[in-house]
Amino acid sequence: MFRLGDYVPSANNVADTRPDAKFQVNSRWFIGPSFLFSSKETWPTEPPSQCQTQSFSDECKKHSVKHWETIGLTSTSPHELPSPVVTDHTRFSVWIRLVRATAHLYSCFDKFRSILFKIRSQPSSHSPSRHTMYIMQTSMSERLLSLPQLTADNIIFAEKQLLIQAQYESFNIEIRSIRNSEPINKKSCLAKISIYLDAEQILRVSGRTGAVCKNLPLLLHGPNPMVLDGNHLIVQLLIRHYHCKFMHGYNEAVVNELQQCYHILRLRPTVKMIASNCLSCRKRKTVPYAPPIGDLPEDRLTPSRPFSRVGLDYFGPINLQPLQDSDLLGRRDWKKGLRLADHFWQRWTREYLPIIRTRRATSSSNQPACGDVVVVVDGNLPRSCWPIGKITKVWPGKDGKVRVAEVATKGGVLKRAAKMLAPLLCQP
Description:
This protein is an alpha+beta fold and 428 residues long. The chain is built from 13 helices and eleven strands. Among the domains are: 14-84 and 107-146, no CATH class; 153-285, no CATH class; 373-425, SH3 type barrels, CATH 2.30.30. The strands form four sheets. It has a five-stranded antiparallel beta sheet, covered by helices on one side. A two-stranded antiparallel sheet has the order 1-2. Strand 9 (402-409) and strand 10 (412-417) form a beta hairpin. Helix 3 (95-120) crosses helix 6.
């Protein structure tokens, strides 16, 4: 019998060789190394140079691993409680994907268990080679370990295992104290809550609605919900799932839905944090940059003849005929024209200039910067269709404030005023 930890030379190790171009029935990837078909006395042994360190088989004996056929569904360590085996939640950003991956993981366990049961059900006189041949004789679908379609029960079971894992990682000390019938530390976040472990070793709140539980059909999880920590990543994925499930609605709506099923510590701050980090909510709620109004151009404050400095002819097709010297009747009319011009300029300076002098305060000091992800405001499109881009270049004014930026979008590079850009993700 080949046990976990036995020595296999690199030349005979299937994992160290490149797979065959075509997976034939007699491929090493299905039947294993050739020495498995010979007697155990001829199997390769570990070289003496590698025996100085403790082998993996000795490590298995140290942890009381007695049966090589056993597939464990719990992970343990000397200082932690036994916890369910689940998918690495740090590699997921969507709750439903994490749940389905965990459900497929347990489907694999069931598949391996059924194969081992078939092997162990054979007569004991069968050699390891006969076991290998038995696996080869199974159907192609079993050889490739095809998994059945997930059912609702698989999804519910995977969700429960994930939440149990979150409990064990968040309340390890409290659960250990309850199991040992010891009081919970007064500094614990659960010290002021009446909690207990149910028959499935799930930490729950001792609710007050047990007497009328039969009259509360909407209370799907009963009067004693699970206790969860809002700071745990698994719980945050669950809250983000509820946030998207209820159409990115008000935070209180998400809180109310979660409270019907779970008792989550720091629930409202966590919901608020998830909503503030949601890109869909940011795109819907973001407002454009509000740069301060710039200084008036020098040309607008310098006395000069009318229309001597213009940027655009607002009169359109109207033709203005400049005054000729022959149009002036005399020196008296010339002086009168100059005096009228001075009088107009003085009144403009005293009466109108103070009105436009005041600079309005801006609600935010944030201004565009290279690397910011922004939404380009377009009044001709609905808000959900506004293009998203990244600022690649900015043009600061004389006062150091940015009022124009260049944005790279999927449709090309755009040059827009800062008030037509709404920030999504800003550089720190």
